[in-house]
Design a protein that fits this description.
The protein has eight helices and nine strands. Helix content is about 45%, strand content about 20%. By secondary structure, the chain is of the alpha/beta class. The chain starts with a strand and ends with a helix.
């Protein structure tokens, strides 16, 4: 019988990885009594993240680690994780950040939303009940502006297109032709949701509160934001 899988991409998250794995494991144990798996996809973190994850995999039994020799970016890390989970028979595939920006308790709500009829559940900062804490005005502007820009250009009703807290039914990932996804960062999240909508799947937004990381360093950069601005119009052109 297939079970839900959670994909956690990591690069230099030694300060967070043990706590996030234990928290996510406990939540999923309650939300998925049939079983679950967590896959850490580590891009050769020089701070020892992968080694900590290996130790926890040996201890917990529900955790696996996919080691990649070099840092290739968020999009490729997720694609490698998705392929691994689907190959293992996952019924649902979830994604979240590894730094507690996403509350592990919300994993249960996302999984429940899909089991209740959605094909893709998004943890949304920009619907009623959702929000962001600890961000300065500039970062809020970039994030909200990026979602608004993508929504207008692509003609979508989804309000939080750049968020990375999601739960997919496996059929969604199978239908959106993952090997052809080339985007990174913000654009990667936009592209996955856009392809799901184009394929006719039902997307719902579950309100969440996003919190800025307390430990470690953000991987967000202006390059990622600029890439999204350039790639979003190309997504629409390709779809046509």
């Amino acid at each position: 019988m297939g079970i839900p899988w959670l994909i956690l991409p990591t690069f230099n998250e030694a300060e967070n990885i043990e706590a996030i794995l234990r928290a996510a494991d406990a939540v999923l144990a309650g939300a998925a009594p049939e079983g679950h798996r967590i896959l850490v996809v580590d891009d050769g973190s020089p701070d020892g993240t992968g080694e900590i994850a290996d130790r926890l995999a040996a201890e917990l039994g529900t955790v696996e680690v996919l080691h990649r020799s070099e840092r290739k970016g968020l999009g490729p890390a997720y694609l490698a994780g998705f392929a691994h989970a689907l190959g293992a028979g996952a019924t649902h595939v979830m994604e979240m950040d590894s730094d507690f920006s996403h509350d592990p308790n919300d994993l249960a709500r996302l999984l429940a939303a899909v089991r209740e009829g959605a094909d893709l559940a998004l943890g949304s900062r920009y619907v009623p009940g959702g929000g962001v804490t600890d961000w300065g005005l500039l970062r809020q502007f970039v994030s909200r502006g990026g979602s608004w820009y993508a929504r207008v250009v692509l003609g979508l009703k989804v309000r939080d297109l750049t968020g990375g807290f999601k739960c997919f039914r496996r059929e969604v990932l199978e239908a959106i032709d993952l090997p052809t996804v080339r985007s990174q960062g913000y654009a990667f999240q936009v592209e996955l949701t856009y392809r799901a909508v184009l394929a006719g799947f039902r997307v719902v937004e579950v309100p969440i509160t996003f919190r800025d990381r307390q430990l470690g360093h953000s991987k967000m950069s202006w390059r990622i934001a600029v890439e999204a601005m350039i790639l979003v119009p190309q997504l629409r052109k390709r779809a046509r």
